[in-house]
Write a structure and sequence with these properties.
The complex is a heterotrimer of chains A (362), B (360) and C (503). Chain A has 15 helices and two strands. Chain A has 362 residues and is mainly α. Chain A has a single domain, classed as ABC transporter involved in vitamin B12 uptake, BtuC (Orthogonal Bundle), CATH 1.10.3470. Chain B is an alpha/beta fold and 360 residues long. Chain B contains eleven helices and twelve strands. In chain B, the strands form two sheets. Chain B has a six-stranded parallel beta sheet, with helices on both faces. In chain B, strands 7-6-8-9-10-12 form a six-stranded mixed beta sheet, sandwiched between helices. In chain B, helix 3 packs parallel to helix 10, helix 4 packs across helix 5 and helix 6 packs across helix 7. The radius of gyration of chain B is 21 Å and the shape is globular. Chain C has a six-stranded mixed beta sheet, sandwiched between helices. A six-stranded mixed beta sheet of chain C has the order 16-19-20-13-21-22, with helices on both faces. Chain C has a four-stranded antiparallel beta sheet with strand order 2-1-4-5, covered by helices on one side. Helices cover 33% and strands 25% of the residues of chain C. Chain C is α/β, with parallel strands linked by helices and 503 residues long. Classes of the chains: A mainly alpha (362), B alpha/beta (360), C alpha/beta (503). Chains in contact: A-B, A-C. At the A-B interface, helix 3, helix 6, helix 11, helix 12 and helix 13 of A face helix 1, strand 2 and helix 4 of B.
Chain lengths: 362, 360, 503
């Protein structure tokens, strides 16, 4: 049994390893094809990050990880919540607007703001859940549309109720929650609320592996007909999982809001695109808590380090998006290949077991 | 098997989404073919004059608009003052920390004049500038987001409404149908200023004029990199009877020009920021009436000049008609017949007789 | 036996296939113009062998000789070119095309798609008495007609050696007789047929030669004229044949399940179930006989709360459970052996211990409050594997790796755990080898003695007759007749099942 498990662990590392090698290879080829120097590129990318970059990587990892968990909750039950982007945009705006209103002070303001972020994210994704269960609308379609609606809606609300300053508009600024500075002050802080990422990760693992709800979720993801026959109520499950996914999505940007941004401004303080990164990282990490952590670190590292590129080389920082995209595609393919291979190994193990069991007495 | 299909579909969506971020960066028609490394002034310039850092907005060099205009100013300054330079480019959806990091990288590399292109740099410059008191910063379209003044930051703002006013006059006088149009990239305060000036100028020239106004996006900055959206918006306005459409939508403008081409003879488009007649395709050229100029190149050059002279500009500098920071272009010669009219309005604005509104 | 009289000869076929049991040292000789039966337990290697002969899989060792020529079959196309055709258990027909269109689909080169094809179809149909009408849509055809179409398709493509994979599994007795008549015509015309079946009566009835497989190899041949069913079964399992004979009645007076005038319609308003009323008492096994697709699945899903009836009431004991959800019903003590293990019974990629939890997520020993009790579930899985003889390396093995019989034993063990009051058993021994079948029957009988009420749905009439205290026949969503297992014959049931005669 022990060797079987060791082999299983080894096998589970094969796919991501292949995917990363492939994505590095493709990136290298693309850079060479446009006539730039791949070696310059890689030496810049793999240079040890500066202290402030290290902090940025940690902070970005936290937000990407929350997004990945939000996506994974849906993915694990076969629901494809592509709408994280809209959910966290709307939730972030609502939370920032509430926090800026300063109805509460200190810790209470932070706590209630987080609850509002969760509630708004959950409500927005819940729409897709309800549409799916009552009208049979695919959540892939509805969440993509809800993304556009959310972003437009936030723009409207911000234009209408925001604080206009210079050429920008934002919500009222709030007091930051002081973080932790491992280096000099000017290198920045690790945001206090990055702890949310840790909690979300641990919570996700517990939920998935230790609770009945998590079991139902995984069962639904593997086969909805089996889950239904086992007593899972599909309607309730879809709406719950969708709302949970959106609720977590609502938290994505909260570390940045209280750690650095202090207000919500489109194109300025608000960081868009984390929802899509989260989906990519969930795919890369195969919806596993540790796998996604690895993926989040990788993506954060690539994004942060890409900033050095225009500076030190003539490669556009957009190249890392190719690296990221190829990594995701490669991992999906590599996992399927490895999964089949693994299924064969397992069947062979059972076969051998049976042969020895039946032939021994003969 | 079915599950795999769905999963692959999502992976593809995710990859497209990532790639999509990438493509909207480059904007413009030649997004893929950025100027080759050899033409790069920052690669070759090794002069002993000022060392300049230029931090581009999303889109970077090659957007045929804003960022390119800043590069023109940089190039001129580097050549003239025998300086050197470093560049950095923003990516879509980047965090605040990435912009700060970019500025710090430049300062750490010894740049003594750093220009952030676009108001998005306002917060990051405000955060970084105090740490580098010997470095001079400038932000195009920028502002000071807090009450604490920075004595090493220049805010370069443009009276874009004034330039828009003049092309509004041109549009109204050239219109035969009595209806003209405006296409904005994103419905934010910056672009509303363009709209306000344009409408005011048109009404001044022809009080009965009707102006169709539309925006590509309410808030999503993708509106500045969406030629298809620009084309759809402009086509809608041409369909409603407009025969001149002015765009303030960055790289989406090429779609507006295409719409004018398709609308046929006698339909015009008006460019923005730089003289877009010069960069338009052969098919588009006969339809580009004029362009509202926003001389980011002048502002960039001027700022570097003050740094080079040892008297760096700080605080707010407004570029308007008076100092030729904004204006209109005449390439193509389509408005030669009304140039005197337009210059008449220009004189009144410069003298203060006409106050151009900043809000619609 | 001369060389000319041999259609197919397999010698020393081996396949180190990553399956449950690989083929090794398989020898098989099919004479021209005969029906050759291939029998064996599930997982004995029959399907691997068939796939090898049909070119789906390549053997690692051994030789295939067809009509005296050694051949290498890399793809089914190779097989067809060598005159080997196969009719799968699950038909491969396009419902929305006509018989003619299905026939020529993929074989357009042979006789075109026009009159030539039509003539050829008529010729095949008349020659073997298939009664095919070229312009009828396949969706209008019954199961038996579809099967004949499949056989005709194979002939149309020039096959002279036809593999039939459990062809009688989907047929009622009368249809089986008709099929056998067709097969005799085929063999008289010089075709050779490899007939795979579980049903020993049928094998003895139709075949000229019999080959028995066990554990991946051929263990012997038998002459149907001199062999008995029992001897065949013994060859297959290497032990004595279990019998489903009913013991003395254990039926009590306590009613455990009542259906009162239950009707169910589909989304278009067509009735799937019409006025179903039945009662099952503690200690009683109620068998439901019927041709598949006459409402059995809907009946089970309605009782299990996966569908809510439009009218009528369902009582569990004395409690009205009409609108209860599946989970509540399971918590109330209903065990459920689903018809389709893979669609409703197992998470194939999950380990066995997680499959132990499935369907009982809220019950001890699997759960403690909202938490999964991992150690409890794992320990209980060990118990089930021991008590129900589930053969697998361990409880962490994924369910997919198990053979069908072992998967089914795990399900039976799971559903029998926690002392259910009612068991819904849908085809509990379908696709299960004889050894596992007898074990499952024993478990059901034992539970019945202990007072379990059982609703048994089966296509295997022997199973129904052997286990049930009462048999009801379902036809087009109605219960159309009630029989005493002691006196009923398969012919009576078959007649009721096809609406031939009311009981």
């Amino acid at each position: 049994m022990r060797t079987f498990n060791l082999k299983a662990i080894g096998l589970s590392l094969v796919a991501p390893a292949i995917a990363i090698v492939v994505s590095l290879l493709v990136t290298t080829l693309v850079i060479a094809a446009v006539g730039s120097s791949p070696s310059d590129f890689w030496s810049t990318m793999f240079e040890v990050p500066k202290p402030r970059s290290r902090i940025d990587i940690i902070n970005q990892t936290g937000m990407i990880y929350i997004a990945a968990v939000a996506a994974a909750i849906g993915f694990r039950m076969g629901l494809f919540n592509i709408g994280l982007e809209g959910q966290y945009t709307l939730a972030s705006y609502a939370a920032a607007a509430f926090a800026g209103g300063a109805y509460l002070s200190g810790f209470a303001n932070v706590a209630v703001t987080l609850l509002i972020a969760i509630a708004v994210g959950a409500a927005w994704s819940g729409i897709a859940g309800v549409l799916r269960t009552t009208r049979g609308v695919s959540e892939v379609i509805s969440t993509i549309m809800l993304n556009s609606i959310a972003i437009t809606l936030v723009g409207y609300l911000l234009n209408r109720y925001g604080v206009h300053e210079g050429n920008t508009v934002r919500t009222t600024k709030i007091d930051l929650v002081t973080g932790f500075s491992p280096y000099e002050d000017r290198d920045g802080q690790i945001w206090t609320l990055t702890i949310i990422a840790v909690l979300v990760g641990v919570g996700f693992w517990l939920l998935l592996n230790k609770t009945r709800f998590g079991f139902d979720l995984r069962a639904s993801g593997q086969s909805d007909s089996v889950a239904k026959a086992s007593g899972v109520n599909p309607t309730r499950m879809i709406i719950t999982a969708m709302a949970l996914s959106g609720g977590i999505a609502g938290l994505i940007w909260m570390p940045a809001l209280f750690g650095k941004a202090s207000s919500f401004g489109l194109g300025t303080s608000f960081q868009a695109g984390l929802g899509f990164l989260g989906i990519a990282v969930a795919l890369l990490g195969r919806n596993r808590p540790l796998g996604m952590l690895f993926g989040a670190v990788l993506f954060a590292f690539l994004s942060v380090k890409s900033n050095d590129l225009t500076f030190a080389t003539d490669v556009s920082p957009s190249i890392v998006q190719i690296t990221q995209g190829v990594a995701v595609l490669a991992v999906v393919i590599a996992y399927e290949v490895v999964r089949r291979w693994r299924a064969q190994l397992e069947q062979r193990a059972v076969g051998q077991d049976l042969v020895t069991a039946t032939e021994a007495p003969a | 098997m079915r599950r795999l299909t769905k999963l692959s579909a999502v992976a593809a969506v995710a990859a497209l989404a990532l790639a999509g971020c990438g493509s909207s960066d480059s904007g413009g028609s030649d997004g893929g073919s950025k100027p080759a490394a050899s033409k790069d002034v920052c690669k070759d310039a090794k002069g002993s004059g000022p060392k300049i850092g230029l931090a581009y907005d999303v889109g970077g060099r090659g957007d045929q608009s804003f960022n390119d205009s800043a590069y023109v100013g940089l190039k001129k300054a580097v050549t003239e003052f025998d300086g050197s330079c470093v560049e950095g480019e923003a990516t879509d959806g980047e965090p605040e920390s990435a912009r700060e990091d970019r500025l710090r990288n430049m300062a750490d590399a010894g740049a003594n004049a750093i220009v952030g292109v676009g108001f998005a740099y306002s917060d990051s410059v405000n955060a970084v500038a105090p740490d580098y008191p010997d470095v001079n910063f400038a932000i195009v379209d920028g502002f000071d987001p807090d009450t604490k003044p920075n004595d090493n930051v220049a805010y370069l703002t443009f009276a874009a409404n004034e330039g828009s006013y003049l092309v509004g006059v041109a549009a109204a006088e050239k219109s035969k149908s009595g209806t003209i149009g405006f296409v904005g990239g994103v419905h934010n305060d910056l672009i509303k200023g363009f709209e306000a000036g344009y409408v005011a100028g048109a009404k001044a020239a022809k009080p009965s004029i009707k102006v169709e106004v539309s925006y590509i996006q309410e808030s999503d900055l993708k509106g500045f990199g969406d030629p298809a959206g620009g084309k759809a918006a402009a086509t809608g306005e041409f369909d409603k009877g407009a025969d001149v459409v002015y765009h303030a939508s960055g790289a989406s403008g090429s779609g507006v020009f295409d719409a004018a081409v398709e609308a046929g003879d006698g339909k015009w488009a008006i460019g923005v920021d730089s003289d877009q007649y010069l960069t338009a395709t052969a098919a588009q050229k006969p339809h580009i009436l004029t362009s509202a100029l926003k001389r980011v190149d002048v502002a960039t050059y001027d700022f570097i000049k003050t740094v080079n002279a040892g008297k760096p500009a700080t605080s707010y500098t407004t570029y308007d008609l008076k100092n030729d920071g904004v204006g209109y272009s005449t390439a193509g010669g389509f408005i030669d017949d009304i140039k005197s009219d337009i210059d008449g309005y220009k004189a009144k604005i410069v003298s203060g007789d006409i106050k151009v509104p900043t809000k619609p | 036996m001369t060389q000319e009289s041999v259609a197919v000869e397999l010698r020393g076929i081996g396949k180190r296939f990553p399956g449950v049991i690989a083929n090794h040292d398989v020898d098989l000789t099919i004479r021209v113009g005969t029906v050759h039966a291939l029998i064996g337990e599930n997982g004995a290697g029959k399907s691997t062998l068939m796939k090898i002969l049909y070119g789906v899989q390549k053997p690692d060792d051994g030789t295939i000789t067809i009509n005296g020529h050694a051949v290498v079959l890399k793809t089914p196309t190779d097989a067809i070119e060598n005159g080997v055709g196969m009719v799968f258990q699950h038909f491969m027909l396009a419902d929305n095309l006509t018989v003619l269109e299905n026939m020529v689909l993929g074989a357009e080169k042979l006789h075109g798609i026009g009159d030539a094809a039509r003539t050829e179809i008529a010729r095949i149909s008349d020659r073997f008495g298939f009664g095919l009408e070229p312009d009828v849509l396949v969706e209008k055809l019954g199961v038996a007609d579809r099967q004949r179409l499949e056989i005709a398709k194979v002939l149309y493509r020039g096959a002279r050696i036809i593999i039939l994979d459990e062809p009688t599994a989907v047929l009622v007795p009368q249809e089986v007789d008709a099929l056998f008549a067709n097969l005799r015509e085929l063999k008289d015309a010089g075709n050779s047929i490899l007939f795979i079946s579980h049903k020993l009566d049928e094998v003895l009835d139709i075949s000229d030669d019999i080959t028995v497989m066990r554990r991946g190899t051929t263990v012997g041949t038998a002459d149907p004229r001199t062999t008995t069913k029992l001897q065949l079964a013994e060859l297959m399992v290497g032990s004595e044949l279990p019998s489903p004979e009913t013991e003395e009645s254990t039926v009590t007076d306590t009613v455990q399940l009542t259906l009162d005038d239950v009707s169910l319609a589909d989304e278009f308003g067509r009735n799937l179930l019409t006025s179903i009323s039945l009662q099952i008492r503690r200690g009683e096994v109620l068998g439901i006989a019927g041709v598949e697709g006459n409402g059995q699945a809907e009946l089970v899903e309605t009782i299990m709360g996966m569908r809510i009836p439009d009218t009528g009431r369902i009582l569990l004991g004395t409690e009205d459970v009409t609108n209860w959800h599946t989970r509540e019903l399971r918590e109330a003590g209903i065990g459920y052996i689903p018809e389709d293990r893979h669609r409703h019974g197992l998470l194939l990629d999950a380990p066995l211990w997680e499959n132990r939890i499935l369907g009982h997520q809220t019950q001890a020993p699997n759960a403690k409050g909202p938490w999964i009790n991992r150690s409890g579930a794992r320990k209980d899985t060990d118990r089930i594997m021991a008590e129900y003889d589930v053969r697998a390396p361990g409880i962490d093995t994924p369910a997919r790796a198990l053979s069908g019989g072992n998967q089914q034993k795990l399900i039976v063990g799971r559903e029998m755990s926690g002392d259910p009051v009612l068991l819904i058993a849908s085809h509990p021994t379908r696709g299960v080898d004889v050894g596992a079948q007898s074990a499952i029957w024993d478990h059901i009988k034992r539970a019945r003695r202990a007072g379990l009420a059982v609703l048994l749905i089966s296509a295997d009439l022997d199973e129904l007759i052997g286990l049930s205290d009462t048999i009801q026949v379902i036809l087009r969503g109605r219960l159309v007749g009630s029989f005493e297992p002691a006196t009923v014959t398969p012919q009576d049931l078959g007649s009721a099942m096809t609406g031939g005669a009311a009981a």
